[in-house]
Amino acid sequence: MPAVAGVDLELRAKHCLAIVGASGSGKSTLARCIAGLEQPTSGRIQFAGRELHAAMIHRRIQLIFQDPGASLNPRFRVAEALEEPLVIHGKNFGREETVERLRQVGLAESMAERLTSQLSGGQKARLALARALAALDQGHPNILILDESLASLDLSVQAQMVNLLLDLRKPRQLAYILIAHDLSLALHWAGEIAVMYQGQIVERNTPHMLLADPRHPHTKQLVAASLEKESLTTEGGGGRPGV
Amino acid sequence: MRIDRLAVSFQLERGELNVVRNLSLSIQRGEIVGLLGESGCGKTTTALAILGLLAANAVVKGSVRFHQTELRGAAGRTLDKIRGGGISLVFQEPSLSLNPVLRVVNQVEQVLKAHQSLSVAERRDRARNVLDKVGLHTERLQKSYPHELSGGQRQRVLIAQAIVCDPSLVIADEPTGSLDAVSAREILGLLRDLVHRLNASLLLITHDPRLSATIADRVLIMYAGTIVESGPASEVLRSPSHPYTRGLLCCLRDLGAGVSDSSDKHHLGVIEGTAPDFHSLPPGCSFEPRCGERTAACTQSEPGLVQVGSREVRCILHAQ
Predict the structure, then answer these.
(1) CA A1, CA A207: separation in Å to the nearest integer?
(2) Does the residue A218 lie in any domain?
(3) Model confidence pLDDT, tens digit, residues B22-33
(4) Concatenated DSSP letters of A188-230
(5) Which domain holds residue A168?
(6) Taking the complete model, does pTM exceed 0.90, yes or no?
(7) Percent of chain A scoring above 90 in pLDDT
(8) How many structural domains does chain A have?
């Protein structure tokens, strides 16, 4: 059974591409192919003009899973969890670097000795991000795939994570692939949105055009669901919280 | 249903944990009420406390009256009658709440068996009928095992179980949490139509203001175990009064309004910091450490709920 068929995509350095669609539309399978966790039956994926190969893939492309907390070993301390990918990829590390990497994702030094099971959902998401960044080579453009990684977080935590990811984009030369079933985050964040339906990309456009002129019936459904949800909360409202 | 000064605390080795504090709410027949708050604020604990489903180390104070019956401390037999019969609960994760080795139609029949004395044929008829109502029309779907159904279809089975005995109150705890946007919209519409048709009430527990915005008549905003703002949904969500509600909606509004095609995306409005730990709640207002409008007085004592027009707000800024 083809899970993904005839998909053509292109992602430029430091850009954000969102892939949206209902559950079972093939989004995660596509993400796993790009991250090298699944072998496509046919077709090819190139990175920086070269065929993807196992030796480089995990140093340039990282995927953060749907439930970031579930991919952390609950018996590990935060520092151990962060050092694990560094050891695997044979990189140097020391306590200072660990602390610096934690700080980069907004975790205090005092977190280093906590068990990962003691972290809140938002803190787990930050640690998962730090682990993904640790595996990536610095100084080159890289790709970070977020497979619904923010969906399970509370709104206020989601907003903090989005801001953090926006801040990291330039210094860490990150391009993002955002996998989501919901348009709202994609509309805000992505430069381009691809809508997936039954394994195929049925529409690709900028957020603005997608919202203004959805063509495919499934895109129309997604836009309607998104607009209906926003209708009440986008009018007026109080000012920004002065934080 | 009327809840008066509900408090739930858990006795732990480390001491007492006050997870729900001084919570009052009432739901009229036919009304849809949204209970809105972020993870760990005590929403689900409140739902479980209503039905007496909390663990043995939970201490529940206050009163929960359903029609003429006091549910707090009620005998098991009384509660058994009300659970699923008078008040039903739709859980968050449908795949965890269904029996994997029973056909879904049989699982709906089980609810009927527990509450009504019907013949086997009548039960089968009622169960098929209610599955039909929630959109599982074909016999093949009705005779499926849970693993043969999609997440949205499983959620429909839970809704069928919840309404099969014509309850007067349905509590839905994040009923769309595991669904994609399109199915979530369908499920919410279905819930709304069904409770209206039964003339029942709905308590919708959710962390997403957009969900309560689409169907609730009234919303209650919960933070750190207590209600910080309540009132008509359209008013509260359009012009929030409490700084926490404002912050929450600000994160959202930026998401909705942030459609831009430039590669330079702007930052979202955020509420800085994290929700307080129940072990160390701040001495005054529980939102004070994260609030942008705090004053020295906010650390003194927790403000009470103040009536402001058609709504209630727990904030010192509205106390005058």
Answers:
(1) 31
(2) yes
(3) 999 999 999 999
(4) HH-SEEEEEETTEEEEEE-HHHHHH---SHHHHHHHHHHHHHH
(5) 16-71+140-231
(6) no
(7) 45
(8) 1
Partner residue facing B182 (CB), from A162, A187, A225: A225
Interface test with B, best of A11, A198, A226, A232 (most B CBs within 10 A): A232
- The residues, ordered by sequence, that sit 6+ positions from B197 with a Cβ below 8 Å of its Cβ are none
Integer Cα distance of B55 and B49 in angstroms? 10
Residues B198-222, mean pLDDT to the nearest whole number: 91
- The residue that leads in pLDDT, A53 or A242, is A53
From A185, A189, A237, residue closest to B238, measured CB to CB: A237
Q: Which residues in chain A have their CB less than 8 angstroms from residue B241's CB?
A: 238
For residue B223, the model assigns a pLDDT of 95
Is residue B44 one of the residues assigned to a domain?
A: yes
State which amino acid sits at residue B316: I
Q: Which of A155, A162, A168, A184 to mutate to test the interface with B (most CBs of B within 10 A)?
A: A155
Q: Which of B148, B207, B210 best tests the A interface by mutation, with the highest count of A CBs <10 A? A: B210
46-105 of A, contacting B, C-beta below 8 A: none
SS3 B203: strand
pLDDT attached to residue A235: 42
Residues A214-240 as b/e (b if ≥16 CB within 10 A, e otherwise) read: beeebbebbbebbebbbebbbeebbee
Q: What separation in angstroms does the CA of A139 have from each of A132, A133, A173?
A: 15, 12, 7
pLDDT, one tens digit per residue, over A120-154 is: 888 899 999 999 999 998 888 999 999 988 888 88
Residue A179 lies in a domain: yes
The count of structural domains within chain B is 1
ipTM of the complex: 0.77
Q: Which DSSP letter does residue B14 get?
A: T
Give CA–CA dist A24/B61, Å, rounded.
45
Inter-chain touch A181–B290, beta carbons under 8 Å: no
User: Shortest CB distance from A221 goes to which of B182, B210, B241?
Assistant: B182
Query: Which CATH number belongs to the domain containing residue B301 in this structure?
Result: 3.40.50.300
Distance, in Å, from the CA atom of B61 to the CA atom of B272, rounded to the nearest integer, reads: 33
Domain assignment present for A147: yes
Backbone angles phi, psi at A175, to 5 degrees: -105, 145
Average pLDDT taken over every residue of chain B: 90
Is residue A206, in this structure, part of any structural domain at all? yes
In this structure, what CATH number is given to the domain that contains residue A156? 3.40.50.300
* A183 DSSP 8-state letter: H
With beta carbons less than 8 A apart as the criterion, state whether A142 and A104 touch: no
DSSP helix, strand, coil percent of chain B (3-state; round to 5): 40, 25, 40
Among A156, A166, A221, the residue with its CB nearest the CB of B247 is: A156
In the sheet that holds B69-70, the strands lie side by side as: B15-26, B2-12, B58-66, B69-70
Chain A nearest-CA distance from B86, in A, is 30
